[in-house]
Amino acid sequence: MALKITVIGTGYLGATHAAAMAELGFEVLGLDVVPEKIEMLQRGEVPMYEPGLEELLRRHVDGIEGASGRLRFTTSYEEAGAFGDVHFVCVNTPQKHGEYACDMSYVESAFDALAPHLTRPALVVGKSTVPVGSAARLAERLAAASPAGAQVELAWNPEFLREGFAVKDTLHPDRIVVGVAGERGEELLREVYATPIAEGSPFIVMDYPTSELVKTSANSFLATKISFINAMAEVCEAADGDVVKLAEAIGHDERIGKKFLRAGIGFGGGCLPKDLRAFMARAGELGADQALTFLREIDSINMRRRGHMVELTRDAVGGGFLGKRVAVLGATFKPDSDDVRDSPALNVAGQIHLQGGQVTVYDPKGMENARRVFPTLAYADTALDAVRGADVVLHLTEWREFRELDPAALGDVVAERRILDGRNALDPQLWRKAGWTYRALGRPKA
Ligand code: UGA
């Protein structure tokens, strides 16, 4: 009989994972403790913007016309315990308030709520990003609290999906990493991932701590690559060099590679920044803090980018923000997402606003979330409306819509044809030809 799967926590990770598991042919029950979220999902609506996810969901949610009916949702742990052979825990692990460490309370509550309902053999699979050592601790807690005792196993299976590509990354992962303590965990996960394994996704089996470390080290490496190129951008600016050319040239070396070498206002989002910090905090607890002190520098290079963008803008408008109108294109932490968590774009917009600038923001998908986080900023319904009367235009999230803007049309409505590209994603020639002063981070002035 086909395995029955539950997915606990229906945020980015969980909602995508649940829909993907149904797509792979399994019966799936998604659980969340927020009833409104469950009601939305049950109607086939996704609580966030993620390309392709709503379509995938609607292909499987029970009760939707033409759907496979393999995907249902609940708020009941009792129902989840009775239903599932394999339980994926996908709840989030945000940064603790006022500390670097990650907040494990959602993971712990999920395990504590599920365990008493595990009355038959089951595999619990952690997907949340956790500090190394958590899986071993949670395995003991699970065995002690589950009626089925030793028949309940734990595996750790970190997730590497990127927002904006969540569906593709989940259905066709570039690797599947599993941390296990016994053979049954591995066998069941081979069954769950049979389709991507057959397509060629590497399936890499290891112990718990290594699997936890794979996730945090991968994100740390990505953050390091971005901060490296941003450090080069700082040097380029000082030496009148061009960081875009530099990245292109070093990227041809296959050992370095072209990806994640886009200089700009740096990384943000719900993962990279908090994962770096949690990793440092955990290394400190383990007595290995020296190994990761370089991550502190990665973090500070990154945070410096935001301040630098604010300074460039201040210079561009003559040394002070008072009475100046600043148009901000982009609010999300990256394109193809509505996520504004720790968004560099919104941070820059907020700083300028707090320093007296009149900031108007436009983002293709992130307006609602941005308004919630920063209600005192002004928001416009289109890019054209945002730039109307602006003394300077800032390009802070590299949406395709912004690359396709017509510099001449925008030029007709601004007060000054001045644009600062915080993502090195616009074509300088195009803007300069239309009479704009174009400046970007880490590139020559003209
Ligand atoms: C990141 C990782 O890329 C995923 O592999 C991982 O699964 C995920 O975190 C997670 O831990 O859940 P994500 O947060 O979606 O994914 O965002 P990224 O695509 O990594 O981008 C992060 C930030 O770096 C964005 O703000 C982006 O604008 C910035 N970035 C990216 C740059 O500034 N330069 C680049 O060259 C690339």
TrEMBL record:
EC code: 1.1.1.22
Domain of life: Bacteria
A matching Pfam family: UDPG_MGDP_dh
UniProt keywords, alphabetically: NAD, Oxidoreductase
InterPro entries from the UniProt entry: 6-PGluconate_DH-like_C_sf, NAD(P)-bd_dom_sf, UDP-Glc/GDP-Man, UDP-Glc/GDP-Man_DH_C, UDP-Glc/GDP-Man_DH_C_sf, UDP-Glc/GDP-Man_DH_dimer, UDP-Glc/GDP-Man_DH_N, UDPglc_DH_bac
Metabolic or biological pathway, per its Swiss-Prot or TrEMBL entry: Nucleotide-sugar biosynthesis; UDP-alpha-D-glucuronate biosynthesis; UDP-alpha-D-glucuronate from UDP-alpha-D-glucose: step 1/1
SUPFAM superfamilies given in the database record: 6-phosphogluconate dehydrogenase C-terminal domain-like, NAD(P)-binding Rossmann-fold domains, UDP-glucose/GDP-mannose dehydrogenase C-terminal domain
Catalytic activity: UDP-alpha-D-glucose + 2 NAD(+) + H2O = UDP-alpha-D-glucuronate + 2 NADH + 3 H(+)
Tagged with keyword Coiled coil: no
Positions of the UDP-glucose/GDP-mannose dehydrogenase C-terminal domain: 327-428
Family membership noted in the UniProt record: Belongs to the UDP-glucose/GDP-mannose dehydrogenase family.
Identification of the protein by name: UDP-glucose 6-dehydrogenase
Originating organism: Streptomyces kronopolitis
